[in-house]
Known about the structure:
Helix content is about 0%, strand content about 35%. It is an all-beta fold. The radius of gyration is 58 Å and the shape is elongated.
Amino acid sequence: PPGTSLPSAQGCWHRGVPREPGARWAELGCQSCTCQGGQVVCQPSSCPASCSHPLPAPPGGCCPSCSGCWYEGVARAEGDVFSSSNGSCTVCVCLAGNISCITPECPPGSCHSSSPADCCSCQPAKCSFQGRSYPHGAHFSLDGDECTICTCRGGEVECSFSPCPVLDCPQHQRLLRPGQCCFTCQDPPAPAGCLMDDNGVEFPVGQIWSPGDPCELCICQADGSVSCTRRDCLETCPHPIRIPGQCCPDCSAGCTYMGRIFYNNETFPSTLDPCLSCICLVRAV
């Protein structure tokens, strides 16, 4: 019946399947079974390590595979060439489940560059310049010439002029001072006078003038500004004479009477009473 062993001549009957004497087969759970003397004998499958870095067993499988490589947690295909993860220039290859790595040999001495892309760890060549030694990447100035900057690169010295800023002043206001490498903008010259916007007339510093109102006086300051003040008329008289262009009435030249001007001690008839005679007397009241 099914599930029982058969006589040796008839082999074995296992899980509804007949097996020939000496037959071997794999069962689920990584069991290896064999038919021996009519009996089914099962034991865990043995996986001999035939390579150094086999791939893990695939889903449903029991034994790892040597058709690829498992290296540092990454599956590598057969013949795959890759760099080591330690940051060095070691190159590895996957062959039949085995990993072989090769590290290049670096020549002794200095090199021309210290770029991280270079595999060999070396010290860039130093520079000898004007009797002095400078390490790679050093910046220095020439003796007595602060305007020239030099750089040591792989044993060679490169020199160039110091960059100068872009100036926003006109050419005639640029000045190269002693000991400096670049031109600078000098301060514009002090104003020589005051420029009036209304008529374009320029007055020298200290000049006093009236801008149109005879009672207002303006003076040109040293910084080019204009300062203006108004005058007060303190002298008064009953009939002062107003002279065109003069701020205050004049009480010393004569008298003004009914729109006419009479000089001092001048006699004239009254316009209100022809029998009256008037005289201009210059005196303060």
